[in-house]
Amino acid sequence: MRKAKNILLSIFAALFLSACSLGSGNDGGIYRSDDGGKSFAPKNEAENNKAINAVDVLSLAINPQNGREAYLGTKASGIFKSENAGDSWRQLKMANLTPVKVYSLAVDPNNSRTVYATVFLGGRGKIIKSSDSGENWEDVYTEPSSSTLVLSLAVNPQNSDYIYAGTDQGLILLSENGGETWKNIHTARAQVYKIAVDYFNPQIAYFVVFGNTVLRTDDNGKMFHDLSEGKQFNFTGVDQIRNATAIATDPGKAEWVYLGTEGGLFRSKDRGENWESVKVLLKPQEQAVRGVSVNPQNSDEIIFGAGQTFYKSVDGGQSWATVQNDSSRSIEVTEYNRQNPAMIYVGMNKR
Asked: pTM for this structure?
């Protein structure tokens, strides 16, 4: 553990302390592991002798067809793209404007040249779309008020014409034609913070309603089910459902879904009808579980972040290995390279 820390710190100092940083501080940005999460190194070099080691990461999307192509959404500096697995980044533009906050990113799993982002741009919450891998963008949805935001987005993995989005006013939106038009399919009681779609049956989708509940649809949004009502739990109460901070479906098992909360990690094997607690190395309420991901080639491998610590299990959550990140910022997102799951990306955010 100490050796990994020393390696990380020495690489960080050698590469980035002499560069001009975007933002403030020097312990943010993106980290990458090439050994399955045993060690991480910062990957924050940007064009024009700049660095992104000061940016706060809100979202991260890895091209599912090319894991060396990555998109990074930030809290104050817009979207960055890497074509060499994070070894270097460049800031993307939209009509000579840079989106400020980038809450969610998604790469079309069937056509990786198509990328979506939910952003705050020009004083409005928007969904923007690129059809040429981020070189040019078009506005495909705009919030009606300058005080409202689009926070979350997910693309159907089998039919990418279907796209879900969620707003801070609780609206769940659906496009059935690749973002050309949208309709309001449900109004939740609070902001729709995260969205996850089942890989095997993408008519099933989950929506984290911040501080309130998790909703599920089984029919592309025609009906919604509240997962905090009338369910069986083998942990105390439904407060964990109501305090969800992360959600992930299992790429290898139908109807399996993981929920990161302020009180730990939980798993359902039946679309959220029943839940079990996955024992992790955290005390309840110690740190919220964020950035939950499941290895796309091995369902027994689960990763997440809590505070500055990266957690990984290779036995379905029975035991865990940890790597401490020497940063004042917290792990916000984790992502696998789908072609090479030994390559893992981690994004940092100041909370």
From this structure: 0.91
